Amino acid sequence: MMYEFLTPIDKENIMEGAELHPGQIGNYIFIYEGKEVELSDFNIAFIGIEEDRSSVGNAGSAKAPDLVRREFYKLTMPPIEREFKVIDLGNIKQGDTPRDTYFAISAVVLELLTHKIIPVIVGGSHDLTLGQYLGYRNLNALVNLVVLDEKIDMMDDPSKKIDSGSYLMNIFTYTPNYLFNYSHVGYQSYLNDAKAVETLEGLNFDCHRLGLIRANLEQTEPILRDADMLSIDISCIRQADAPAHAQASPNGFSGEELCQITRYAGLSDKLTSLGIYEVNPGYDNNRQTTQLAAQMIWYFIEGYYSRVGDYPLNLEEHLKFTVHLEDANHELIFWKSKKTERWWMELPFGNKEKYGRHQLVPCSFNDYEMACEQELPDRWMKAFTKMV
Q1: Which of 23, 54, 82, 380 could cysteine-pair with 163, CB 3.0–4.6 Å?
Q2: CA atoms of 133 and 105, how far apart (whole Å)
Q3: C-alpha R_g of the chain
Q4: SS3 (DSSP) at 233
């Protein structure tokens, strides 16, 4: 059971004796106290991971969970109409080795996913994404991973020690493989070897440069709508907005943009876990980054409770559009939600049992316009290539 890996928090100690007023979110969160709970009573679980032994140049992020938790508790309740059912499960115990911690994370994540609860994880170093990902391995489904990071944390030799700068290759080469797609969002070209980008593109994965994403932030919405899990390295945010990282860069996303992105993630009917990593309080300025991380979680939860359930598609609630591509002698089928006006592209069935949940590819109105101009959307082509 997952409870053996958890350490309950001392709420009074975390709040440093400060009392919460009735409108603050900390009054509405159920606190795990060391006894088994009825998991079916909850939608979202907050989990801290005090682990940074595999950090590359940012030791200290293990101290972040309780500090982010304190700032989160101070925020006011989001304006939601559904019942607020969030539990704080405390912190995952540090294992004898980082690999033991990955195992503990995967066991907790799997238990929560099995009960249809979304884990919101605060680390800890970015290699803990591996534990988050391993939580999906027994679900018998191919999953999509999205990572926001200024760097592509990948090495060529997966036999080397796993750390926060190299864990991705361990995900890509894990056996049995259950990764359908990987999307890297916000990388900065001058911080990455061109070979890393080429490797991702060679694997038919998605790689989105910071400048192109910031020019049109709405393009992240279809990416996140197709994700099962999201992992965020706080270094993807510019230093002025998130200084709590030893290698914080002057360039990056703004705090407002990350809050919008996490809200997109919360709105996604498909996304089932969120991880925020590498917040290092030792470099913070007046709790600026821990406050921002708390606000990102607030927006994620507000998005979650605003979900309208337009995926999987109910054909009566969607409009169908068919575009004939003359050169390819092929028809593309698009679906538009009457509720939200969000778009999907339909792929031809391959192995329905294996790829059925990936047959509908989230897209934008721009993809439909491209098809009308006789251009095959890149999203469609990449997804189709993985299925043949």
Answers
A1: 54
A2: 9
A3: 21
A4: strand
Which residues contact residue 175 at a Cβ distance below 8 angstroms, ignoring those fewer than 6 apart?
none
DSSP state, residue 344 = E
Asked if 162 and 170 touch (Cβ cutoff 8 Å), the reply is yes
Res 351: pLDDT? 61
Per-residue pLDDT band at 323 (split at 50, 70, 90): very high
pLDDT at 330: 83
pLDDT at 352 over 70: no
| Extended beta strands in the chain, E state | 6-7, 30-31, 44-49, 86-92, 118-122, 143-148, 179-187, 206-209, 229-233, 273-277, 318-325, 330-337, 343-346, 360-363
Q: Where are the domains of the chain?
A: 2-304, 315-387
Rounded Cα distance between 345 and 333, Å, is 6
- 3-class SS at 359? coil
Q: How confident is the model at residue 313 (pLDDT cuts 50, 70, 90)?
A: confident
> CATH 1.10.357.10: does it fit domain 2-304?
no
Alpha-helical (H) ranges within 124-250 are 129-134, 167-172, 194-202, 210-215, 220-225
Assessment of whether the complete model's pTM goes beyond 0.90: yes
- The residue assigned the tokens 């949940």 is 357
pLDDT in tens, 221-250: 999 999 999 999 999 999 999 999 999 999
What's the whole-number mean pLDDT along residues 57-70? 97
* The length of the chain, given as a count of residues: 388
Which pair of tokens denotes residue 227? 């994700």
Please give the mean pLDDT across all residues of the chain: 94
SS3 state at 189: helix
Nearest to 201 by CA among 378, 7, 26: 378
Contacts by 21-28, CB closer than 8 A, 24 or more apart:
23/76, 23/77, 24/73, 24/74, 24/75, 24/76, 24/77, 25/72, 25/73, 25/74, 25/75, 25/76, 25/77, 25/78, 25/298, 26/72, 26/73, 26/74, 28/77, 28/84, 28/86
